[in-house]
Amino acid sequence: MTTATIDQALPAGMAKPSFNPAPIVVALAVIAAGTWYLGSTFAWRQGALFLVGVGAGVVLYHAAFGFTSAWRVMITEGQGDGLRAQMLMLAVTCAVFFPVLAQGEIFGRAVRGSVSPVGVSVVVGAFLFGLGMQLGGGCASGTLYTAGGGSVRMLVTLAAFIVGSVVGVIHQPLWDQAPRIAPISMVSSLGVVPALGLNLAIFGAIALVSLVIERRTSRVARRTAFAWLRGPWPLAAGAIGLAAVNIATLALAGRPWGVTSAFALWGSKIVAATGVDVAAWPYWQSRAAELRGTVLSDVTSVMNVGIILGALTASGLAGRFAPTFRVPARSLAAALLGGLMLGYGARIAYGCNIGAYFGGIASSSVHGWLWFAAAFAGSALGTRLRPFFGLRVE
C-alpha cells in the first residue's frame, strides 16, 4: 500500500469506511490466547515480544510505512516524505541504541547490536533484495503486514520469500568466501558521541537532499486525511512507532528487531520434515538449538506472527479487509520472482530492510549503510522493470 493508495481511498470529505468486525474478533482472540500461551509456556518476555510484534503490525498498516513504495516514489516522482520518515526513525533509534550498546546492557539485561561483515555478499544480496522489493511488492516487514491486511498476492510473495531464504541458507557458506572485511562498529571505533553525530549528520543530509529534489517536482502527493483508530496515520507517527518497536525489542530480546531469519527457520523445518538432513548444513551447525526447538520459542517467528495479526486487526478497524483471489499472471510471476530474490538476498546480505538496514544502522554497523546504498540501487532497477510485469509505477 502506498501513500497515493491511501489518499485515493480516503479523499477529503468522504465518509470513513465501516469496521470489518470478523477479522478484528478473530485477530484479537488469537492475540489474547497467544499472549497467554507464550507467557505461561516460555516466559513473560516471549509474550511481551509477541505483543510488540502486534504493535508493529498496527503501526506498519495504519501508517502505510512501506520501505518499498517510499523508495519507489522517491526514484520516480522525487517525493521524499517516506524517505525522510525513515531518517527520523533511524535518528530516534540511534539516539537510544548507541549509548545502550556502548554500555552493553539495559535494565540489567545484556544487549548486542547487529554488526556484520562488509563485503561483496552484502552488496550483491542487498541489490537483489532491493530489486525483489519492487517486483514482489514489499520488503520483509511490508510483506508481512500487507499479507496480514488481506493481500493474497503478498501471500505468494511470502511463500517465495521462504523458498529463497532456504536457498540462501544452502549457498551462504559460498558467499562467506567472497571478499569482505571484518564487522565495523562506529560506536566501538569512534565513540558514542562522534558516531551519533556522524550518523545524525548523514540522516539530515539525506533528508535535505530529498527536500531539494522534491521541490523541483510538481507532482508531490500529500496525505490529507488522518484517523488514529482506523488510519491512515502520519508518516512521522509511523517512524516514531517503529523506533519504539526496535527499542522495545532490544530491551526485551537483547538484540535489535529482525524478520527474515524466521523465514529461513520456517523453510528449513519444512524441508527437514521431508527427511532432508538440514542439521548438517553449515548454516545450522552453529544454530542447532534453533532448528531443534519449536518455532514458538523463536523470538523472530513470534514477532512475525504478531505483525500479521496486528495488521489484520488494523485492516479490520480501517474497514479495508477484503481479500481478492484474482491475481493477473504477470503480477503473480513478479511476486514469485521478487519473493525468491528477497529471501536469497536477505540471507547472503546478513539481513533485510529491518535486520540489516534499520537494525544495522541503529547498531552503528557500517554494513547497514552499504546495504542501504546497494538496496536503493536495486530498487531503481526494479522500478524500471515493474511495467514489464503489469505493475503500476507511481
Report on this model:
This protein is mainly alpha-helical. The protein has one domain (3-389). 69% of the residues lie in helices and 2% in strands. It has 18 helices and four strands. It has helices at 3-9, 21-41, 44-62, 67-77, 81-103, 120-136, 140-148, 152-175, 186-190, 192-215, 235-253, 261-273, 282-285, 288-292, 299-318, 329-348, 353-362, 366-385; strands spanning 105-106, 109-110, 118-119, 180-181. It has a two-stranded antiparallel sheet with strand order 1-2. Strands 3-4 form a two-stranded antiparallel ribbon. β1 (105-106) and β2 form a beta hairpin. α3 packs across α7, α3 (44-62) crosses α15 (299-318) and α17 packs antiparallel against α18 (366-385). It is globular, with a radius of gyration of 20 Å. The model is unreliable at 1-16 (pLDDT under 50).
Counting helices, strands and paired strands, the structural category is mainly alpha
Instruction: Domain count, please report it.
Output: 1
Write the H/E string, N to C: HHHHHEEEHHHEHHHHHHHHHH
Number-wise, the strands total 4
Indicate the low-confidence ranges by residue numbers.
1-16
Number of helices: 18
Strand content: under 5%
Task: Record the strand order, biggest sheet.
Answer: 1-2
**3D shape:** globular
- Biggest β-sheet description: 2 strands, antiparallel
Q: Helical amount among residues, as a percent range?
A: 55-70%
Q: pLDDT average, as an integer?
A: 91
- Terminal Cα span: 12 Å
Radius of gyration: 20 Å
